Automatic annotation (TrEMBL):
Domain BTB, chain residue ranges per copy: 2-69
Signal peptide: none
SMART domains documented for this protein: BTB
Protein name: BTB domain-containing protein
Organism (species): Imshaugia aleurites
Length: 217
């Protein structure tokens, strides 16, 4: 057994070492080596989200991920997606992505500014959760004709950085697409559609997993 301490006010998880190492290259590197973590049988993850890690532990021990019913659960699943990427668990990453997409299909709304900031702070360029979230924000803004963004989004844009650049870029591309659909070929039109209307696999990672058949649920 090993102990994993998660969060700034650490919560201790007492877990089976072999199970962790069998499922994840990340944990194999930590506990199956000569690193301090392996000797001490402890791993500290102060930067990670406790609720997301709790979902990971449930999945690790055989539970099926449940549908997202509210905003708190959404935040936990976003954190789970971030952890799945960190732990090199592509299948889990895609499962979490499916549930996040389904939530936004059933509950049409803007992605909260703070959620978008968290996603960008904890993912890298090209991450599919980034792509989905920033596209959804841009699409909703353009589709609803919002001219005055909320103070939180104005503050976000004022901070600059990758998030502001990506959001501005998507606003421009989607606005142009809606004004001149005939100016794009079929692939580009799909690329600039409402991200909730395209196949889930558009936002999946398939380096080590088999690409899924087209689906929208």
């Amino acid at each position: 057994m090993v102990d994993v301490f998660v969060g700034t006010e650490p919560k201790k998880f007492h877990l089976h070492r072999d199970l962790l190492c069998d499922r994840s290259e990340y944990f194999e590197a930590c506990f199956g080596s000569e690193f301090e973590e392996a000797r001490e049988k402890e791993l500290h993850l102060p930067e990670d989200n406790v609720a997301g890690f709790e979902l990971f532990v449930e999945w690790l021990y055989g539970s099926t991920l449940r549908s997202i019913e509210n905003e708190d659960a959404l935040i936990s699943h976003i954190a789970l997606h971030v952890l799945a990427s960190k732990f090199c668990l592509e299948h889990l990453q895609n499962e979490a992505m499916d549930l996040i997409i389904r939530f936004y299909r059933v509950n049409p709304r803007l992605v909260e500014a703070q959620s978008l900031i968290y996603i960008y702070e904890n993912t890298s360029e090209g991450d599919f959760l980034r792509r989905f979230s920033v596209r959804l924000v841009a699409w909703n803004i353009v589709e609803t004709g919002v001219t005055d963004l909320s103070p939180s989004y104005n503050t976000l844009l004022g901070l600059g950085g990758e998030l502001a650049v990506d959001l501005t870029s998507w606003l421009i591309k989607i606005s142009a697409n809606l004004r001149a659909m005939h100016g794009f070929d079929d692939d580009e039109r799909d690329y600039l559609k409402d991200p909730r209307s395209v196949s889930n696999c558009t936002f999946h990672k398939h380096n080590s997993t088999i690409a899924c058949r087209s689906m929208t649920e």
